[in-house]
Amino acid sequence: MKTVDMTALLSPEWGVSDAGFLTTQYGAALTFKTNRVRQVTLTFAKAYRGLSFAVKINDNDWQTIAVSAQVLQLSLAMTPATVEVVLRDREGSSEAFWNDPVILTTMTIDDGDVVPFAVTQPFVTFVGDSITAGEDMAADGNHPEVSYPQLVANALRQPLNRIAYGGTGLTASAPYQIPTAIEALWHVGNNMARPLVATNLVIVNYGTNDANYGANAQQFAFGLRIYLLELIKRFHNAKIMLMMPLNGAFRAVFVAETARFDQLTLIETKAWLPTMTHVHPNCAEHQVIAEQIVKGL
Fold it and tell me: What SUPFAM superfamilies does the database record attribute to this sequence (predicted)?
């Protein structure tokens, strides 16, 4: 067996700790190319309840593979292959995920070679809540691998940088306050700096949880104003676009607050899915969102 250095294979949703590579996000990815490899083994620091990954090999369909006894095993043909491994699910809330990150310790192969995808910077960055994370997209749960951030990144042919946590928002009304929206910009876990990558476009989607859990316009305006200052500080060289919530909440607030900053562009979204009555868009609706974003760009 050969041990592989994973550093160049991991998406920006992973941080580096003494224990290994850690993540607190659905959609955290591991992508690579293989040659003469028949088996890939990923080993985790412990057994995480319900941990599973979406896996795509070459042009085949995505398949879900569960982690068993701290191990994820992939079987390949010996011919060259492209492999995408995306964290799809684990048991617990986003707050629990933050406090108990998934830690990937080693990657081994039986033979052959592994090389990273050729990544041409800059990244496209998506920031938001469970909708951006790709949660509850189908009857079988999360599908970050085909959520609108990934679809837009694919269409733009840019690598994806995703910062998204379910239940979060910009006010105290959002059900989860760990991590806060501002903390998530700078950290990928407790006291763990988020990798900083070059990005030319940032698309933000917040406000749904604030509206659904009782925040009023004044509270949201205050939270949004503070957040925008931090967002510009983090991504001062990028074009920043703010999606209004798909249900149209806080439109007047978004219009007023974004007008204060030349760096910001507002995206109207309410007409995209006029018949949607549920909180989380399904797979087909994520496709519509992605198409609308790309069309607007």
Answer: SGNH hydrolase
